[in-house]
TrEMBL record:
Name of this protein: NAD-dependent epimerase/dehydratase family protein
Known cofactor(s): NAD(+)
GO biological processes: D-xylose metabolic process
Record GO terms (molecular function): NAD+ binding; UDP-glucuronate decarboxylase activity
Membrane-protein topology: Single-pass type II membrane protein
Keyword Transport part of the UniProt annotation: no
Organism the protein comes from: Sphaerisporangium album
Keywords in alphabetical order: Decarboxylase, Glycoprotein, Golgi apparatus, Lyase, Membrane, NAD, Signal-anchor, Transmembrane, Transmembrane helix
Lineage: Bacteria, Bacillati, Actinomycetota, Actinomycetes, Streptosporangiales
Subcellular location, record wording: Golgi apparatus membrane; Golgi apparatus, Golgi stack membrane
Pfam family, one: Epimerase
Length: 332
């Protein structure tokens, strides 16, 4: 199989998962945001090959290919704001090339899409039938619209050329091997907490995300390669929604080695603390301005994933964060 972006955070986990299952994996990565260090343990394995190439340029892979998984793209808000044209090319020309390879090889195709296609959602939780609320010229548009175009292209290749396609919409995946400097909330908070720095909470911290541990996302993608979804997009994520301020508090407790009663600190699920109270975190957090058009709420409806893929997330937020913190400690 071919995994574009296979040396990135999620791609490297996916590459490892498939190699361990006995598959031969060709990982195509430009290493612009990915890193060979993410797949160092696989480099000596005869079933694994790292090809350093840009997915948006012409490329091919010799021999039979049974599946093409297209993940190549900058994925953190900091990276795609820094690389807007590269991000749009990865979603457009890159997706075109990856689909063309799948077509030529008669391979299955899986697109790694994103919850960002829903933009600032007016429906909560988000079902796949929701069309989204995206500003096509906004500060996140290079990523959101690239992925929306990639979904449209995938759908058209399936209709016109009969390529067997799947689309997964991934919601805030986190875990070991995330770049500690890509600016996303989990690596940012963990890095800051381990360094004894205040956690940079953007805005009042009342905005929510539903964080999916990487092993769960990988199994969701594996299930998407096995089950035929008829080309329908499927949400992959966790339905454990947490405010950014609650997340900060949880990471501070976990890095301090304190036992915890859960992400909400013992409150009923779905209830967040009054953001004005700042959790009594005092100078352990530093509030910075909320980036423009930062989505206020995000949580996937996972009904379709359960029905079509027989998949649901298994890892509680606290457990996934504890594993990620342990990895970050070891990596320092
Ligand atoms: N965030 C934050 N502090 C940080 C990084 C992110 O408060 O240092 C917030 C950000 O404003 C957003 C949420 O955390 O509301 C998730 O941000 P991330 O960049 O991880 O992913 P997004 O869901 O925005 O793509």
């Amino acid at each position: 199989m071919v995994i574009t972006g296979g040396a990135g955070f999620l791609g490297s986990h996916l590459s490892r998962r498939f190699v361990r299952a006995g598959a031969r994996v060709v990982c195509l990565d430009s290493l612009v945001t990915g890193s060979a260090a993410n797949v160092r343990d696989l480099l000596g394995d005869p079933r694994f090959e790292l090809v350093v190439a840009d997915v948006t340029e012409p490329w091919s892979v010799p021999g039979p290919v049974d599946a093409v998984l297209h993940l190549a793209s900058p994925a953190s808000p900091r990276d795609y704001a820094r690389l807007p044209l590269e991000t749009l090319r990865a979603g457009s020309a890159g997706t075109w090339n990856a689909l063309t390879l799948a077509r030529e090889k008669g391979a299955r195709f899986l697109l790694a899409s994103t919850s960002e296609v829903y933009g600032e959602p007016s429906e909560h939780p988000q079902r796949e039938s929701y069309f989204g609320n995206v500003n096509p010229v906004g500060p996140r548009s290079m990523y959101d619209e690239a992925k929306r175009f990639a979904e449209a292209l995938t759908t058209s290749f399936s209709r016109v050329h009969g390529v067997r396609c799947g689309i997964v919409r991934l919601f805030n995946v986190y875990g070991p091997h995330m770049s500690l400097s890509d600016g996303r909330v989990v690596p940012a908070f963990i890095g800051q907490a381990l360094s004894g720095l205040p956690l940079t909470v953007f805005g009042d911290g009342g905005q929510t995300r539903s964080l999916c541990y990487v092993d769960d996302a990988v199994e969701g993608m594996v299930a998407s390669c096995v089950h035929d979804t008829g080309g329908r997009p499927v949400n992959i994520g966790s339905d454990e929604e947490v405010s950014v301020l609650d997340l900060a508090a949880l990471i501070l407790r976990l890095t301090a080695g304190e036992d915890d009663t859960g992400p909400s600190g013992g409150r009923p699920p779905g209830r967040t603390r009054d953001p004005d109270a700042s959790h009594g975190l005092g100078d352990q957090v530093r509030h910075l301005p909320l980036p423009p058009e930062d989505p206020r709420r995000r949580r996937p409806d996972l009904t379709l994933a359960r029905e079509l893929l027989n998949w649901k997330p298994q890892t509680a937020l606290r457990d996934g964060l504890a594993r990620t913190i342990q990895w970050a400690r070891d990596a320092r």
